[in-house]
Amino acid sequence: MLEPHAMQLSRPGRFAVALPPPGVPPQETPPPHLLRDELRLPELTQIDVVRHFTRLSQLNWSIDTHMYPLGSCTMKLNPKVNDAVASLPGFTNAHPLQPASEAQGALAVMHGLQAMLAEICGLAGASVAPMAGAQGELAGILVIKAYLESRGEERTRVLVPDSAHGTNPATASMAGFDVVAVQSRPDGDMDLDALRDALEQHGHAVAALMITLPSTLGLFDRNIVRIAEMVHAHGALMYGDGANLNAMLGQVRPGDLGFDVMHINLHKTFSTPHGGGGPGAGPIAVTDALLPFLPAPHVVREGAFALIDPPHSIGRLGAFHGNFGVLARAYAYIRALGAGGLRAISEAAVLNANYVQERLRGAYDLAHDRRCMHEVLFSGARQKAQGARTLDIAKRMIDYGYHPPTIYFPLVVDEALMIEPTESETKETLDAFCDAMLKIAEEAATSPELLREAPHNAPLRRLDEATAARKPVLRWDRDSR
Ligand SMILES: *Cc1c(COP(=O)(O)O)cnc(C)c1O
What we know:
Elements: H1 6-9, H2 46-59, H3 80-86, H4 89-92, H5 104-121, E1 125-127, H6 133-150, E2 157-161, H7 167-174, E3 178-182, H8 192-202, E4 206-212, H9 224-233, E5 237-241, H10 254-257, E6 261-263, E7 284-286, E8 298-302, E9 304-308, H11 324-360, E10 365-366, E11 376-379, H12 381-386, H13 390-399, E12 406-407, E13 416-419, H14 427-446, H15 448-452, H16 465-470
Parallel strand pairs: 2-3, 2-4, 4-5, 5-6
Antiparallel strand pairs: 1-7, 6-7, 8-9, 10-11, 11-13, 12-13
Helix pairs in contact: 3-11, 5-11, 6-7, 11-14
The protein binds pyridoxal-5'-phosphate.
The site of pyridoxal-5'-phosphate has 13 residues, from helix 6.
């Protein structure tokens, strides 16, 4: 059942707060033709307002209320200490136009984060300007483009594996490159013959290979060093999509594997709040040769901390300095954990995913039967043959109190169902989750209609997501109800 809109709860004359007397002299009202007779605002008592918004907030799924195994998204605990740090008055009251001399603390956080991310990635430097993973991708690819142009090289193509996240080809294309897809092998690793062919066929037109490690299949490509050598041998660069960095934190540094540029999703790996399209951050780390091309502004330490434009910068990505509140949270997270803590994260994340893989392997088909990294990829093909599609499995999980995993991605796996438990969950929660998944597999075999009609106890059942995204109703309108 749909929650009533606040307008429907409204009764004339009710109010929730008494406004304090204004601290400024009364102003003249605008001319009468600009005034409305009726201002359609809801009139409610305070308790009704509190209940209304509390109820609405509970209709949402969040990592604070439910396990959220959304593959590739790393929906991990957002430690509350991050919020305490980001809420320090010196940070929340800072103004982006304040002179650097008055914002040394904030700049120190950005500078420290640049350095720690570069160290974690094994690269020479980092920029914290990009405000999303996708924007980091664009920044990174533009850095590559600017670098190649500075060398007088005209390279127009970017190689992307067929398992890639949609933002990879979209980024390459937005930056003006043509995208060439490279096949994966049945075992999930990149097909080296296909890569060799692509490099030979497109020769010196290839600017970069964009690759995610571990891959979007949840697998560590065992040939990654060889791949980097092949790409470099053709004068092209290695772009790393770092969305899956959680699996490798402190274990291996992408720079040591041969990556030249990568982005890092702070709202994934570094525990900043994630979801609802809210602010994120997608810093990039680069090799020495690419430092002069980093986005502006960049934080340097010349005695005091200062903001500069790198000499051959690709320019600004936004009005100011990135999403500072997100940067402060990630900084707090890394400092709270230290090197040993970061290493423990990747170990627990990978262990948890492999535990889920082992518990569910009899009930669901594995896309690749080998040790997974931080997420495990199943196929719902068996259940589909029984009469319940992967979408139906996902919807049924809502009835059991779990946010559905990522489905139908990566595109190269039939009926894909990608589970990322993260390191945050206890064994008890993982077991309860696996029990629910096993029960659903049983239901698919015996009464698939139960899945096809799910969710049974959600406030709304199956929504037309495409129409909701294309024609959103954002405003209360009595006539639209
Ligand atoms: C999440 C993700 C992205 C995009 O990152 P955003 O921060 O959502 O813009 C890119 N690639 C992969 C593999 C991802 O999982």
